């Protein structure tokens, strides 16, 4: 066997290796671009939810008790939002990522409610929309302002409208409508 016969496999290997590596790198780049390396979003927590106490003078009222009893255990969504245990009176919560959906009943009249406030009607309930005040809000709070008690529903902004629609149905069934009280 001659020396040139021994060099041929080494030359072929020297040429083929960079080509194979280039193809592998290109394949990985295409896979990454298609979202192949994107980590799955964290699963929402479903255990008991500790909520900060807030002033809610009517949280223990019969109206709030009736509303909480009428709420569904889960809210529609993709995936469904599973109810979370809460011990605070007048509060209900559902698992959602990145933050839970929280309903509070019996709150005082919101300061943001003025004669010029824009209200949105969803399934017969008038809602005042309040964002978290950041340039790109991550939370939005809807306050039902046309019932005997004020009800606030806080959801992640990307949560969609299903929670508001479902809660509106429960409010319509349990809390009588009244004129919006503005200053």
Structure overview:
Helix 2 crosses helix 3 (162-174). With 183 residues, this protein is α+β, with helices and mostly antiparallel strands. The chain is built from 3 helices and 8 strands, in the order ααββββββββα. The mean pLDDT is 86. An 8-stranded antiparallel sheet has the order 1-2-3-4-8-7-6-5. The protein folds into 2 domains: 1-39; 62-174, Protein Transport Mog1p, Chain A. Pfam families: DUF3515. This is DUF3515 domain-containing protein. It comes from Pseudonocardia oroxyli.
Q: How do you describe this structure in short?
A:
By secondary structure, this protein is an alpha+beta fold. It has helices at 3-33, 62-70, 162-174; strands at residues 74-75, 81-84, 91-94, 101-107, 119-122, 125-131, 139-144, 150-156.
Keywords:
183 residues, alpha+beta, Protein Transport Mog1p, Chain A, 2 domains, 3 helices, 29% helix, 22% strand
């Amino acid at each position: 066997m001659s020396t040139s016969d021994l060099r041929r496999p080494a030359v072929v290997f020297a040429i083929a290796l960079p080509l194979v590596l280039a193809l592998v790198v290109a394949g990985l780049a295409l896979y990454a671009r298609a979202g192949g390396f994107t980590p799955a979003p964290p699963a929402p927590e479903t255990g008991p939810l500790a909520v900060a106490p807030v002033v809610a003078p009517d949280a223990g009222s019969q109206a709030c008790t009736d509303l909480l009893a009428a709420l569904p255990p889960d809210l529609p969504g993709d995936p469904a939002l599973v109810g979370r245990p809460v011990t605070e009176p007048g509060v209900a919560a559902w698992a959602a990522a990145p933050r839970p959906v929280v309903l509070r009943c019996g709150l005082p009249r919101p300061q943001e409610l003025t004669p010029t406030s824009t209200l949105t009607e969803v399934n017969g309930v008038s809602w005042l929309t309040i964002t978290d005040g950041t340039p790109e809000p991550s939370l939005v709070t809807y306050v039902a302002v046309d019932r005997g008690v004020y009800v606030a529903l806080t959801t992640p902004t990307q949560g969609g409208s299903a929670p508001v629609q479902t809660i509106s149905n429960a409010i319509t069934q349990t809390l009588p409508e009244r004129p919006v009280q503005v200053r």
